[in-house]
Write a structure and sequence with these properties.
single chain; alpha/beta; seven-stranded mixed sheet; globular
Length: 380
């Protein structure tokens, strides 16, 4: 009798990734694009402020230091790409031009195309642009982030000034008159600070009401204006009479038709991105191409995924009433598409049917959010 295939490696890997999820979320990676004449085309991966290149201009050095301020923790790493002083990010700049021989030409160092090409090969959580980022450049980054998330399945996100992207991968930061360190900053010049703060916030916490101790004051909004801004998908700064802090931790997503409202929350998107990344990486590296696509092996994969979800539930990132199973509806549709008559088949027969190289799973989870809305009654 042939030895039955098992998947111990996959199961162990899923358990390991789940057990390290909290630790990996403690410190994220922020990315920053700057403009500088002397260092155009250079890029750095920095793990501390002591590594900031001295040849960078003072304003750019200060911008990187602001990113490293972080939140609960500083970011684990800050990636920096330097555009030329006159270079801009333009629509379609990531697309390589064609060389004389017909092959793809490398983008010019220090150009917008080179910046996005380099960033596209990195792994980061939040990206911010130069302090003088224009509206047109913000739109380029927005489109690039959305394209990367949807086509390449990466978990890039961006903090951009006044960018109503209506997408969970883009945080629209709209504060103004930010007074800090003797200077006054607008939203564009403080997006890097916010990107570092979000990247340095552990997954068990929300950035809602996270303090920015260096900020002395801002252009304050009324309570009604703050509520309206949050409703428009804006991340704002608020002053509580003692300190300046972030408003509710929301991204720019406002139209949730056909989706859960939880996609509007920065904290929840962080969790869902981690889950997607872990599942995709573990399945690609340890399952695809390595096992026969039998029903038994599908069940073994389901068991491994459940163990991963169980660890997330233990850490109170998701509720315990999760599920993972064969997606019978999708499997039925697939079978019909290849000419299998399923009308007379039982559900179990559909579950066990040969699906070629395809595996269809359905995962149902309920993320656990942070405490943000408190109602207190005082009786006398």
């Amino acid at each position: 009798m042939a030895e039955k295939l098992t998947m111990p490696t996959l199961t162990i890997l899923f358990q390991q990734r789940a057990q390290t999820a909290i630790a990996r979320s403690q410190k994220g990676v922020a990315a920053l694009i700057v403009r500088d004449a002397l260092t155009a085309g250079e890029a750095w991966s920095l793990t501390s402020t002591g590594q900031i290149p001295e040849k960078l201009g003072k304003e750019n050095q200060d911008a990187i230091r602001r990113v490293f301020k972080g939140g609960v923790n500083p970011p684990r790493k800050v990636l920096v790409y330097c555009l030329g002083a006159e270079e801009t990010l333009e629509s379609g700049t990531e697309t390589q031009t064609e060389g004389a021989s017909g092959s793809a030409a490398e983008p010019r160092p220090g150009s917008g195309a080179a910046a996005l090409k380099w960033l596209g090969a990195q792994k980061f959580d939040y990206l911010a642009g130069p302090a003088d980022l224009s509206e047109a450049e913000a739109a380029v980054i927005k489109d690039w982030i959305i394209q990367k998330r949807e086509d390449d399945h990466v978990i890039f996100k961006a903090v951009l000034p006044h960018t109503a992207a209506n997408h969970e991968g883009v945080v629209s930061f709209t504060a103004s008159g930010i007074q800090a360190g003797g200077g006054v900053f607008d939203a564009a010049s403080y997006c890097g600070r916010v990107a570092g703060l979000i990247a340095g916030t552990p997954m068990k916490q929300s950035v809602t009401y996270a303090a920015l101790p260096e900020v002395e004051d801002i252009n304050r909004l009324s309570a009604l204006e703050e509520d309206e801004a949050v409703g428009r998908g804006e991340l704002i700064l608020t002053h509580d009479g003692e300190k300046v802090k972030l408003g509710r931790g929301v991204n720019s997503l406002t139209n949730t038709t056909g989706r859960s409202e939880v996609w509007r929350k920065i904290k929840i998107v962080e969790l869902l991105d981690l889950l997607q990344w872990d599942l995709r990486l573990a399945i690609q590296d340890n399952y695809i191409g390595k096992y026969q696509n039998s029903y038994d092996n599908k069940l073994l994969l389901i068991t491994a995924v459940k163990l991963y979800l169980q660890a997330l539930a233990k850490d109170q990132l998701i509720e315990e009433n999760f599920s993972c199973d064969v997606d019978v509806e999708e499997q039925d549709a697939y079978l019909q598409s290849v000419g299998v008559a399923t009308a007379e088949m039982t559900e179990q027969q559909i579950r066990e049917a040969n699906t070629g190289t395809c595996v269809f799973l359905a995962i149902d989870i309920r993320p656990i959010d942070a405490i943000e809305d408190v109602k207190v009654k005082i009786y006398l």
